[in-house]
Amino acid sequence: MFTEPVQSRVQQREATRRRVIDVADRLFRANGFTATSVRQIAHEAGVSAGTVMAVGDKSTLLAAVFESSIAQMQSAPPPRTSASADAATTPDRIAAVLRPFLELFARDQELSREYAGVLVRGGHESVIFTTLGNDLLQAITVELARSGLSAARAAAASRVIYFAYLGVLFAWAGNGSDVPSALRELRNAVSVVTAENPEN
What we know:
Number of helices: 9
Largest sheet: none
Helix content: over 70%
InterPro entries: Homeodomain-like_sf (IPR009057), HTH-type_TetR-like_transc_reg (IPR050109), HTH_TetR (IPR001647)
CATH architecture of the largest domain: Orthogonal Bundle
Number of strands: 0
Number of domains: 2
CATH topology of the largest domain: Tetracycline Repressor, domain 2
Structural class: mainly alpha
GO molecular function, one term: transcription cis-regulatory region binding
Distance between the termini: 70 Å
Strand content: under 5%
Protein name: TetR family transcriptional regulator
Pfam family, one: TetR_N
Radius of gyration: 20 Å
Domain HTH tetR-type: 14-73
Order of helices and strands: HHHHHHHHH
């Protein structure tokens, strides 16, 4: 008897949350993070400022925007390299794993910098970002094991490569590099770790 109204309220709350995040996404991209106010988000979403704040402050909304995109990417099928998986080098295969996330952050570098700032300041604990990190570590470990590294060495090397990836992201955010340059840096890092096809 009470299940239907409770379910309906839960669905309404989730629909409102989703609408607020979608509007925040659109306004952040159109106006920039700093120029967008909670009042603007509320007006565009057709809700009160209090309802927006119940979903989250601007930093929380920005994190939700990125985390929604990351979650969609994580549920997508794994990327393919341009060469066949057997013929591609280990650096190419690992670059293919990381490329979609670099492209996500490249879409709007200003917002990506703001998102990185939210994560660095520690004002938002990101379950999705942590899950992504674990998933990427696992995918990198698999590719390193395919290259012939022992399980222990592949696990250790994957952490080095993952931290190199984070370093490339932060350095890249600071200097506005492009995706091919970031991928080249990552391939070089993988080459050094695996001693496979180093460019220099």
